[in-house]
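Encoded backbone
================
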Amino acid sequence: MSHPITTHGFTPVPANPQTLLSQAPISSKPPAIPVSSTPIPAAPLALRIQEYARTHLPQPTYHHSLRVYHYGLAIKRHAFPEWAFSEETYFLACMLHDIGTTRENLHASKLSFEFVGGFIALDVLLTRDNASDASDDIASRDQAESVAEAIIRHQDLRDVGAITALGQLLQLATVFDNIGGHAELVSDYTVQDVVRIYPRLGWSSCFAATVEQEVELKPWAHTTALGDFKGHILANPYNKYE
Protein backbone atom coordinates (compact mmCIF):
# COMPACT_ATOMS: atom_id res chain seq x y z
CA MET A 1 0.00 0.00 0.00
CA SER A 2 1.35 3.44 -0.90
CA HIS A 3 2.16 5.94 1.83
CA PRO A 4 0.69 9.44 1.37
CA ILE A 5 3.89 11.16 2.51
CA THR A 6 5.92 9.41 -0.18
CA THR A 7 3.26 9.15 -2.88
CA HIS A 8 2.27 12.80 -2.80
CA GLY A 9 5.69 14.35 -2.22
CA PHE A 10 5.52 15.45 1.41
CA THR A 11 9.02 14.08 2.07
CA PRO A 12 11.00 16.99 3.59
CA VAL A 13 14.11 18.13 1.74
CA PRO A 14 16.38 21.18 2.22
CA ALA A 15 14.73 24.42 1.13
CA ASN A 16 18.10 25.75 -0.05
CA PRO A 17 18.60 24.26 -3.53
CA GLN A 18 22.39 24.52 -3.28
CA THR A 19 22.34 22.45 -0.09
CA LEU A 20 20.03 19.95 -1.75
CA LEU A 21 22.09 19.73 -4.93
CA SER A 22 25.30 19.25 -2.96
CA GLN A 23 23.73 16.11 -1.51
CA ALA A 24 22.48 14.76 -4.85
CA PRO A 25 24.56 12.07 -6.62
CA ILE A 26 24.92 14.04 -9.87
CA SER A 27 27.92 12.69 -11.75
CA SER A 28 27.17 13.54 -15.37
CA LYS A 29 25.66 16.12 -17.66
CA PRO A 30 21.87 16.15 -17.82
CA PRO A 31 20.51 13.66 -20.35
CA ALA A 32 18.44 14.61 -23.38
CA ILE A 33 14.85 13.95 -22.31
CA PRO A 34 12.27 14.73 -24.99
CA VAL A 35 8.68 15.58 -24.18
CA SER A 36 7.64 12.16 -25.46
CA SER A 37 9.55 10.60 -22.54
CA THR A 38 7.57 12.55 -19.93
CA PRO A 39 3.95 12.09 -21.06
CA ILE A 40 1.06 13.87 -19.43
CA PRO A 41 -0.86 11.57 -17.06
CA ALA A 42 -4.00 10.15 -18.62
CA ALA A 43 -6.01 9.56 -15.43
CA PRO A 44 -9.43 11.29 -15.19
CA LEU A 45 -8.28 13.68 -12.46
CA ALA A 46 -5.26 14.85 -14.45
CA LEU A 47 -7.37 15.33 -17.57
CA ARG A 48 -9.99 17.32 -15.66
CA ILE A 49 -7.38 19.62 -14.14
CA GLN A 50 -5.60 20.05 -17.45
CA GLU A 51 -8.86 21.16 -19.04
CA TYR A 52 -9.52 23.50 -16.11
CA ALA A 53 -6.09 25.08 -16.61
CA ARG A 54 -6.51 25.29 -20.37
CA THR A 55 -9.82 27.16 -20.04
CA HIS A 56 -8.85 29.43 -17.13
CA LEU A 57 -5.26 30.41 -17.93
CA PRO A 58 -4.04 32.69 -20.74
CA GLN A 59 -2.24 30.59 -23.32
CA PRO A 60 1.28 31.82 -22.40
CA THR A 61 0.65 30.82 -18.78
CA TYR A 62 -0.81 27.48 -19.82
CA HIS A 63 2.27 26.73 -21.95
CA HIS A 64 4.51 27.79 -19.06
CA SER A 65 2.70 25.35 -16.78
CA LEU A 66 3.27 22.51 -19.25
CA ARG A 67 6.93 23.42 -19.68
CA VAL A 68 7.35 23.36 -15.90
CA TYR A 69 5.94 19.84 -15.86
CA HIS A 70 8.35 18.51 -18.47
CA TYR A 71 11.36 20.40 -17.11
CA GLY A 72 10.59 19.24 -13.60
CA LEU A 73 10.45 15.58 -14.56
CA ALA A 74 13.69 15.97 -16.51
CA ILE A 75 15.32 17.46 -13.40
CA LYS A 76 13.89 14.73 -11.17
CA ARG A 77 15.12 11.89 -13.38
CA HIS A 78 18.58 13.40 -13.59
CA ALA A 79 19.20 14.67 -10.07
CA PHE A 80 16.61 13.10 -7.75
CA PRO A 81 15.63 9.65 -9.05
CA GLU A 82 14.94 8.53 -5.48
CA TRP A 83 11.98 10.91 -5.16
CA ALA A 84 9.03 8.56 -5.42
CA PHE A 85 6.04 10.89 -5.55
CA SER A 86 3.56 10.35 -8.34
CA GLU A 87 3.93 12.19 -11.63
CA GLU A 88 0.19 12.87 -11.47
CA THR A 89 0.52 14.86 -8.24
CA TYR A 90 3.35 16.88 -9.73
CA PHE A 91 1.32 17.46 -12.90
CA LEU A 92 -1.61 18.81 -10.85
CA ALA A 93 0.73 21.25 -9.09
CA CYS A 94 2.19 22.41 -12.39
CA MET A 95 -1.21 22.96 -13.99
CA LEU A 96 -2.50 25.04 -11.08
CA HIS A 97 0.58 26.79 -9.71
CA ASP A 98 -0.10 30.11 -11.49
CA ILE A 99 -3.90 30.08 -11.31
CA GLY A 100 -3.66 33.01 -8.89
CA THR A 101 -2.05 35.20 -11.58
CA THR A 102 -5.10 35.48 -13.83
CA ARG A 103 -6.56 38.97 -14.02
CA GLU A 104 -9.74 37.82 -12.31
CA ASN A 105 -7.94 36.13 -9.43
CA LEU A 106 -5.38 38.92 -8.96
CA HIS A 107 -8.22 41.39 -8.46
CA ALA A 108 -10.49 39.10 -6.45
CA SER A 109 -8.27 38.89 -3.36
CA LYS A 110 -5.74 40.90 -1.39
CA LEU A 111 -3.70 37.75 -0.83
CA SER A 112 -0.43 37.16 -2.69
CA PHE A 113 -1.04 35.20 -5.85
CA GLU A 114 0.66 32.02 -4.60
CA PHE A 115 -1.68 31.87 -1.58
CA VAL A 116 -4.75 32.57 -3.68
CA GLY A 117 -3.59 29.86 -6.07
CA GLY A 118 -3.13 27.34 -3.29
CA PHE A 119 -6.62 27.89 -1.94
CA ILE A 120 -8.17 27.73 -5.41
CA ALA A 121 -6.24 24.55 -6.17
CA LEU A 122 -7.45 22.91 -2.96
CA ASP A 123 -11.05 23.71 -3.85
CA VAL A 124 -10.78 22.66 -7.51
CA LEU A 125 -9.06 19.39 -6.69
CA LEU A 126 -11.62 18.38 -4.07
CA THR A 127 -14.75 19.40 -5.98
CA ARG A 128 -16.02 19.44 -9.55
CA ASP A 129 -18.26 21.74 -11.57
CA ASN A 130 -20.50 19.08 -13.04
CA ALA A 131 -23.04 16.83 -11.38
CA SER A 132 -21.32 13.53 -12.19
CA ASP A 133 -21.28 10.89 -9.47
CA ALA A 134 -17.85 9.65 -10.55
CA SER A 135 -15.14 9.82 -7.92
CA ASP A 136 -12.04 9.07 -9.98
CA ASP A 137 -11.56 12.71 -10.98
CA ILE A 138 -11.47 14.00 -7.40
CA ALA A 139 -8.18 14.21 -5.50
CA SER A 140 -7.70 12.70 -2.08
CA ARG A 141 -7.28 15.18 0.76
CA ASP A 142 -3.58 14.29 1.07
CA GLN A 143 -2.97 14.78 -2.65
CA ALA A 144 -4.84 18.09 -2.74
CA GLU A 145 -3.02 19.43 0.32
CA SER A 146 0.37 18.47 -1.12
CA VAL A 147 -0.45 20.39 -4.30
CA ALA A 148 -1.71 23.41 -2.33
CA GLU A 149 1.39 23.42 -0.11
CA ALA A 150 3.67 23.32 -3.16
CA ILE A 151 1.79 26.14 -4.88
CA ILE A 152 1.75 28.37 -1.80
CA ARG A 153 5.51 27.93 -1.39
CA HIS A 154 6.67 27.82 -5.01
CA GLN A 155 8.18 31.31 -4.71
CA ASP A 156 9.31 30.82 -1.11
CA LEU A 157 13.02 30.87 -1.93
CA ARG A 158 15.09 30.59 1.23
CA ASP A 159 18.44 29.44 2.59
CA VAL A 160 17.25 27.63 5.73
CA GLY A 161 14.58 25.17 6.70
CA ALA A 162 12.81 22.49 4.75
CA ILE A 163 10.26 22.18 1.98
CA THR A 164 8.39 19.22 0.53
CA ALA A 165 10.08 17.34 -2.29
CA LEU A 166 7.11 18.20 -4.52
CA GLY A 167 7.41 21.88 -3.64
CA GLN A 168 11.16 21.90 -4.24
CA LEU A 169 10.78 20.36 -7.69
CA LEU A 170 8.09 22.90 -8.56
CA GLN A 171 10.44 25.67 -7.41
CA LEU A 172 13.40 24.37 -9.40
CA ALA A 173 11.38 24.02 -12.59
CA THR A 174 9.62 27.40 -12.31
CA VAL A 175 12.89 29.18 -11.54
CA PHE A 176 14.41 27.49 -14.57
CA ASP A 177 11.63 28.52 -16.95
CA ASN A 178 11.18 32.02 -15.48
CA ILE A 179 14.76 33.23 -15.04
CA GLY A 180 17.01 30.47 -16.38
CA GLY A 181 18.17 29.35 -12.94
CA HIS A 182 19.68 25.88 -12.35
CA ALA A 183 20.50 25.58 -16.05
CA GLU A 184 23.01 22.83 -15.28
CA LEU A 185 20.09 20.49 -14.53
CA VAL A 186 18.41 20.53 -17.96
CA SER A 187 20.01 19.73 -21.31
CA ASP A 188 19.74 22.11 -24.24
CA TYR A 189 18.11 19.35 -26.26
CA THR A 190 15.35 19.03 -23.65
CA VAL A 191 14.79 22.79 -23.69
CA GLN A 192 14.58 22.91 -27.46
CA ASP A 193 12.10 20.04 -27.60
CA VAL A 194 9.92 21.50 -24.86
CA VAL A 195 9.74 24.98 -26.42
CA ARG A 196 9.11 23.44 -29.83
CA ILE A 197 5.96 21.78 -28.51
CA TYR A 198 5.00 24.44 -25.97
CA PRO A 199 6.33 27.76 -27.38
CA ARG A 200 7.14 30.52 -24.89
CA LEU A 201 4.76 32.96 -26.63
CA GLY A 202 6.47 36.00 -25.13
CA TRP A 203 6.26 34.45 -21.67
CA SER A 204 8.94 36.63 -20.08
CA SER A 205 7.20 39.89 -21.02
CA CYS A 206 3.84 38.41 -20.01
CA PHE A 207 5.02 37.25 -16.59
CA ALA A 208 7.04 40.40 -15.95
CA ALA A 209 3.87 42.43 -16.56
CA THR A 210 1.95 40.19 -14.16
CA VAL A 211 4.60 40.63 -11.47
CA GLU A 212 4.50 44.40 -11.96
CA GLN A 213 0.72 44.43 -11.79
CA GLU A 214 0.62 42.38 -8.60
CA VAL A 215 3.10 44.66 -6.83
CA GLU A 216 1.10 47.71 -7.90
CA LEU A 217 -2.12 46.14 -6.61
CA LYS A 218 -0.55 44.60 -3.49
CA PRO A 219 2.68 46.30 -2.43
CA TRP A 220 2.82 43.84 0.47
CA ALA A 221 2.82 40.82 -1.87
CA HIS A 222 5.28 38.01 -1.31
CA THR A 223 6.71 38.70 -4.78
CA THR A 224 8.44 41.75 -3.26
CA ALA A 225 10.64 39.37 -1.24
CA LEU A 226 12.31 38.30 -4.49
CA GLY A 227 13.95 41.68 -5.11
CA ASP A 228 14.20 42.74 -8.73
CA PHE A 229 12.24 39.72 -9.89
CA LYS A 230 10.93 41.52 -12.96
CA GLY A 231 14.50 42.33 -14.02
CA HIS A 232 15.58 38.71 -13.62
CA ILE A 233 12.60 37.55 -15.70
CA LEU A 234 13.43 39.93 -18.53
CA ALA A 235 17.11 38.88 -18.40
CA ASN A 236 16.29 35.16 -18.74
CA PRO A 237 18.78 33.69 -21.25
CA TYR A 238 16.02 31.45 -22.60
CA ASN A 239 14.22 34.53 -23.86
CA LYS A 240 16.12 33.79 -27.08
CA TYR A 241 13.38 31.27 -27.83
CA GLU A 242 10.65 33.91 -27.75
User: Anything to note?
Assistant: Residues 59-79 form the longest helix (21 residues).
